[in-house]
Amino acid sequence: MSDTLSGSMLAWAIVGSINSAMGNWSTFIANMPDFARYATDPVATMWTHIVFVPFPAAIGGMIGILGTSCLQKAWGVTLWNQWDVYDAILDHSWTGPARLGVFLLAFSSALFNFGVILGANLLPFASDATTLFPAYFNLTRGMWFCCIISLALMPWKILASASGFLAFLEGYGIFMGPTAAIMITDYWIVHKGNIYIDDAYTSEPGSRYMYFHGINLNAAFAYISGMMIPFVGFLGTFGLPVPLAASRCDEIGWYVSAMVAGVVYVVLCRLHPLENVDRSISWEALASGTLAGRVQRGDGSVMRAVPDDDKETMIEEVVLEVTG
């Protein structure tokens, strides 16, 4: 059998690899607000992503591919996992310099993974757990709970082979893609960048973000719609017989699930508008009027926030109305 690919097989291999990469980065896309909220400038996160995300990731992946190819050529073994490479180095050369080099490499790998686990896994999980169950979790408890359930899920089985790991990333993307798509379309299209800060931090029945018993039904239906289309192909990665079309759909699962969920969510919000959406307000009008206490509506009228005598809240009062 030839070791090279061509034609449609090469094209699908490239598309599948990109989809796996998106599955790997999908958790960062969905959890980015946990970190971006500390930014003092709207563009503060842009340059860090442009400079420090694509180039190091591409260089690291290229070094891994070249290293595996060199080992296969020199020793006749194909090793993708770093710890397997370290064992192979010591098996071939049990010398002082080799042991020192393996120690430094292993230490740097451990330090790198510690940073990734802390920033990309523990902190987002703890933030979500604290938000959902504030009576039981804080950031510290959430992180420890994440560590416990991570061991119970036996992640080493996922890393048993390169193909299994890639299958996991492809499948992981179909669950995270709809989440990111709904978040993006909700902010940029549905709400036009407007957030009611006071309502975002209360679970009272009158809050604009309580929806139906705390569940945004439009978002829930859009998520299920986006996830279900490539889900059949995802089952094929576990050995179940599925049509070729379903397998192809799974190979681009992140894109399919994200696009379907985003489109369905926007359409549902048009057909069944959310209670916290005011289409007359212009783009990020609530944010632009926060400091001045005034909000510009899309129709030209201006609202001013004034204290309510009965509550420790602010009510909206129209102080200027533009008529035709």
UniProtKB/TrEMBL annotation:
Q: Does the keyword Transmembrane helix apply?
A: yes
Asked whether the UniProt record includes Transmembrane among its keywords, one would answer yes
Q: What is its main location?
A: membrane
> What does the UniProt keyword field contain?
Membrane, Transmembrane, Transmembrane helix
Q: What is this protein called?
A: Transporter
Family note: Belongs to the purine-cytosine permease (2.A.39) family.
Output the superkingdom of the source species: Eukaryota
Q: Where are the transmembrane segments?
A: 47-66, 100-122, 142-169, 217-240, 252-271
**Which Gene3D superfamilies is this protein grouped with?**
Hydantoin permease
Q: How does it sit in the membrane?
A: Multi-pass membrane protein
A cellular component annotation (GO) from this entry: plasma membrane
GO MF, one term, reads:
nucleobase transmembrane transporter activity
Q: Where in the cell is it found?
A: Membrane
**What species was this sequence derived from?**
Ganoderma sinense ZZ0214-1
